[in-house]
Design goal:
Layout (H helix, E strand, L loop, with lengths): L14 H15 L4 E7 L3 H9 L3 E11 L2 E11 L5
Antiparallel strand pairs: 1-3, 2-3
Length: 84
């Protein structure tokens, strides 16, 4: 998942938890072992939510998007062992 935005007026209504549960179901259905996402490195509240949901920062990513702007993100990962 690259970006996931919830408007301030809709935060605290479990939408992020529902979206992450959907992604975890997709991961399970497809027999995958990881979910990755990117989050702006300065978005402390979202990082805290993702960490609470079991994600950890695995690397930094800076992408030039043109006109002097860059996306300055952390790549976060949640590993879920796949049963054999």
């Amino acid at each position: 998942m690259s970006k996931f935005y919830i408007g301030k007026e809709y935060r605290g209504r479990s939408y992020a938890s529902q979206a992450l549960a959907f992604l975890e179901k997709l991961r399970k259905d497809r027999n995958l072992s990881h979910i990755w996402l990117t989050v702006n490195r300065h978005n402390e509240s979202s990082i805290a939510v993702y960490e609470k949901k079991g994600f950890r920062t695995v690397r930094e990513q800076i992408a030039d998007i043109g006109h002097g702007f860059v996306m300055d993100d952390f790549v976060m990962e949640k590993e879920i062992p796949v049963p054999h």
